[in-house]
Amino acid sequence: MSVNYGSRRIVVGAHYGLRDWLSQRVTAALMALFTVLVLVQLIFSRGPIGYDQWAGIFSRQWMKVLGFSIIVALAWHVWVGVRDIFMDYVGSVGLRLVLQVFAIVWLLGCAGWGIQVLWRL
């Protein structure tokens, strides 16, 4: 017979912690590498840095695909962080649901706008 000391801990889901931790690290590493790539292209470019320079960097197809994947990674990174904050600090289930739906709609809108800007170049 086992003895139960204290209150039981309520767990929301199994193994969310490791998956979320890993996804945060992987998406952060991808965004850091992308930033270094863009900075290297800017540093080794000639002439003034303006719209034409930025459009030239992002006009190549491989850079558009990479930019698209970084926008998706950024949205996922933000979602995991915001969701964890809501789960940790918002006690009311109804308010948490409203905030999560708002965050999802906002992130989808921002990602869609970013992709639209990227592919318009």
Automatic annotation (TrEMBL):
Keywords recorded for this protein, A-Z: Cell inner membrane, Cell membrane, Electron transport, Heme, Iron, Membrane, Metal-binding, Transmembrane, Transmembrane helix, Transport, Tricarboxylic acid cycle
Membrane topology value: Multi-pass membrane protein
Domain of life: Bacteria
Compartments, as annotated in UniProt: Cell inner membrane
Record keyword Repeat present: no
Biological or metabolic pathway of the protein: Carbohydrate metabolism; tricarboxylic acid cycle
Transmembrane annotation, as ranges: 26-44, 65-82, 97-119
InterPro entries, per the entry: SQR/QFR_C/D, Succ_DH_anchor, SuccDH_FuR_B_TM-su
Cofactor: heme
Job description of the protein: Membrane-anchoring subunit of succinate dehydrogenase (SDH).
PANTHER family attached to this UniProt entry: SUCCINATE DEHYDROGENASE HYDROPHOBIC MEMBRANE ANCHOR SUBUNIT
Official protein name in the record: Succinate dehydrogenase hydrophobic membrane anchor subunit
Species of the source: Verminephrobacter aporrectodeae subsp. tuberculatae
Gene: sdhD
